[in-house]
Specification:
The chain is mainly alpha-helical. Helix content is about 70%, strand content about 0%. The protein has 3 domains: about 160 residues, no CATH class; about 60 residues, Arc Repressor Mutant, subunit A (Orthogonal Bundle), CATH 1.10.10.60; about 35 residues, no CATH class. It has 10 helices and no strands. Pfam families: Homeobox_KN (PF05920), PBC (PF03792).
């Protein structure tokens, strides 16, 4: 029986070498290697994390980039550790189960003849069953890496494309043209130049802004009033002296009380009384 077992192991090795690799497993392995989770070195992959976080951190301070790179690398290290622990458990379970089946077949060979071909076929069935577990493990690991990249890199990169100053410029244009918030191509190019972003990003921003404005009119109206107040405050610096009241934050100031009239002018909005005070009658007859 020992000779038969040796032949079985040799034939199994030959069939495994002849069988084409699973394309799904190859794709998952390539993804894990590219993300630095799998590879020749169990602790490797830091260069992949460094390149990814460096690309996402472009345009920000070195200190902040270093912190985010450290966070990303730490999270990726956790995923890598869990992956290798689960992979080791999988390989151990597969080996133990295969050994268990081989022992059972050895016991059965004492009562009935078992050919090496039968043993080989049984081992292949076991490996196919365990292969689905391996696919699930690697697929869930790839999903975890993609979620990590989305949270730590893609989201940060998306936010960094629009600085606070760029957002102010875009919002100011949007609320200044609220009746027709569709900038022309020339306006988009000018906004892109001022905000240091691309024309495509400007178009996407206005498209998303119009959708958000329609979904939440109340909040958008408050924001519109805020930008209108800023615009009025900016206009108050003009040489015409149209400065808003420093004691009242609203755009429209209430009229002063009637007791504040001077030289016969009524400042309470009564225009006819002011005419009479000047000796003018609206019917063409001057008062005595």
């Amino acid at each position: 029986m020992k000779g038969n077992e040796l032949l079985t192991l040799l034939s199994l090795r030959n069939t495994q070498e002849e069988e084409p690799p699973d394309p799904q497993l190859m794709r998952l392995d390539n993804m894990l290697i590219a993300e630095g989770v799998a590879g020749p070195e169990r602790g490797g992959g830091q260069s992949a994390a460094a390149n990814a976080s460096a690309a996402a951190a472009s345009g920000h301070s070195t200190g902040e980039s270093a912190i985010e790179h450290s966070d990303y690398r730490a999270k990726l290290g956790q995923i890598r550790t869990i992956y290798h622990q689960e992979l080791e458990k999988y390989e151990q379970a597969c080996q133990e189960f295969t050994t268990h089946v081989m022992n059972l077949l050895r016991e059965q060979s004492r009562t009935r003849p078992i050919t090496p071909k039968e043993i080989e076929r049984m081992v292949q069935i076991i490996h196919k069953k365990f292969n689905s577990i391996q696919v699930q493990l690697k697929q869930s690991t790839c999903e975890a890496v993609m979620i990590l990249r989305s949270r730590f890199l893609d989201a940060r990169r998306k936010r960094r494309n629009f600085s606070k100053q760029a957002t102010e410029i875009l919002n100011e244009y949007f609320y200044s043209h609220l009746s027709n918030p569709y900038p022309s191509e020339e306006a988009k190019e000018e906004l892109a130049r001022k905000c240091s972003i691309t024309v495509s990003q400007v178009s996407n921003w206005f498209g998303n802004k119009r959708i958000r404005y329609k979904k939440n009119i109340g909040k958008a109206q408050e924001e519109a009033n805020l930008y209108a107040a800023k615009k009025a405050a900016a206009a108050g610096n003009s040489p015409y002296g149209l400065t808003p009241s420093s004691q009242n934050s609203s755009i429209m100031s209430p009229p002063p009380p009637p007791s504040s009239s001077q030289d016969g002018w009524s400042l309470n909005g009564d225009y006819s009384s002011a005419q009479v005070a000047m000796g003018y009658s609206p019917h063409g007859v001057n008062s005595p």
